[in-house]
Amino acid sequence: MIWWLWVLAGIALLAFEVATPGGFFALFFGVGALLVAPLAAFGFSETVQWFAFSVLSLVGLVTLRGPMLRRLNRQPERAAELVGEQAVLLADLPAGGEGKAELRGTPWTARATSGIPLKAGQRCLVERVDGLTLWLRAE
After folding, report:
1. What is the Cα–Cα distance from 65 to 69, expressed in whole angstroms?
2. Dist. CA 102–CA 89, nearest whole Å
């Protein structure tokens, strides 16, 4: 197989991984294709290229996928660390509505835990974190 076909296949697989919500399957095959491209450029036979692609992709999948998923799953623990911190509202937060708040220098989507509207610039406490949304209450 021509080396640039391996590069194209690798890029396509990496783009597929980015475009789809997945579990890091195409990622390892994309990296495997990119790693095999130099073998093709140096003239190794197609049998060697396909064997190396298979081995590299499967070894990466088996050894690295689990740790990557565990690392991603730790994020909720980090989100829980934000509870009790102070956030500053960037815009008025209407009762029952959504707004923006800044926490640790990063803008977040914010919702109020109470039915009381909050004003821009007001300091609030983080009561809980749902994904990328902070649930805030007035101090």
Report:
1. 6
2. 6
pTM over 0.70: no
Q: Which of 73-77, 78-82, 135-139 has the lowest mean pLDDT?
A: 73-77
Q: What type of residue sits at position 8?
A: L
CB 112 within 8 A of CB 102: no
User: How many Cα atoms are found within 13 Å in the side-chain-facing hemisphere of 108?
Assistant: 26
Helix axes 3-19, 26-41, angle to 10 degrees: 170
30 with 3: CB under 8 angstroms? Answer: no
β-pairing, 86-89 vs 98-103, is antiparallel
Alpha-carbon dihedral sign for residues 4, 10, 14, 19: positive
Nearest CA to 25 out of 60, 74, 73, 49 is that of 60
Distance CA 14, CA 23 (A): 13
Q: Are 14 and 7 in contact (CB under 8 A)?
A: no
